[in-house]
Prior knowledge:
By secondary structure, the chain is α/β, with parallel strands linked by helices. 33% of the residues lie in helices and 18% in strands. It folds into two domains: 3-73 and 224-310, HUPs (Rossmann fold), CATH 3.40.50; 76-186, HUPs (Rossmann fold).
Amino acid sequence: MPAGRFAPSPSGELHVGNLRTALLAWLFARSTGREFLLRVEDLDRARAGAEAEQLRDLAAIGLDWDGDVVRQTDRLAGFDAAFGRLSDAGLLYECFCSRRDIAEAPRAPHAAPGSYPGTCRALSEAERADRRRTRPAAWRLRAEAEEFTVTDALAGAYTGVVDDFVIRRNDGTFAYNFAVVVDDALQGVDQVVRGDDLLPSTPRQAYLAGLLGVPLPEYAHVPLVLNAAGQRLAKRDGAVTLADLSAPRTVDAVEYDAVTAARVRDVLLASLGLPQGPLAQAVDAFDPAALPREPWVLDSPSATFASARTR
Ligand code: GLU
């Protein structure tokens, strides 16, 4: 069964920007007859209790999902197997660089900013043995491409950097760019909808999918929600989680009533040009081609989500 998914990192409560991305992932999946899967990306950045809060809030705005929630930490065997395949194919090498080593390394004039300069790619076995004594190794991909092009439902053809990116960190944790590809393949995900901050990572992920011989999903990278300063919305912007909004509050001397999850759902739907109310109507009306292509600027969350009565 083809499937879409939402894959939050359980580092804290979801804010309305995260909820809007989840709503979009759900709409893309449901409007195309797909299953919708939830995956908790808990390889790192997990905070106790955050997963339960996130699931509660997704359900509160009307999202449902198929099957059990999958946690990455329950699937380490799948990562080990894929890692073994890359290793057996000679596609991995040990890297002993610190962040500082990478920042200070000489690079070719045409090297993409931030790309790995290849310092540890050609170490001899004796050099590696020597370095293992001072620092545990991370594992990098021996990439044979410098860039790769993906097709995105909203961005069209997108070409981005592929470098020798980290597959496994030197604390043993599998890196996001690797885990996401393995997880999506193991779960049969053929539609990846997520925030467009991840578009620059997508060429690396698609290139890796090719090396692992797994099918490429369809991609749709959706615009983010920004704060008044034009930065990605964050918890510090205030009154941006369902829990914050569910309490009456005073902001800039204006009193605001508690906001229900249904109201949040409706404001998010309106921001997408979709009919408000229970999500069945939004599924029928959903047309990716008609989605806003610009970020949604939320300059005053309390005012934006205030119910019609208080406004
Ligand atoms: N866990 C990632 C995040 O919360 C998203 C991963 C993805 O959708 O590919 O930023």
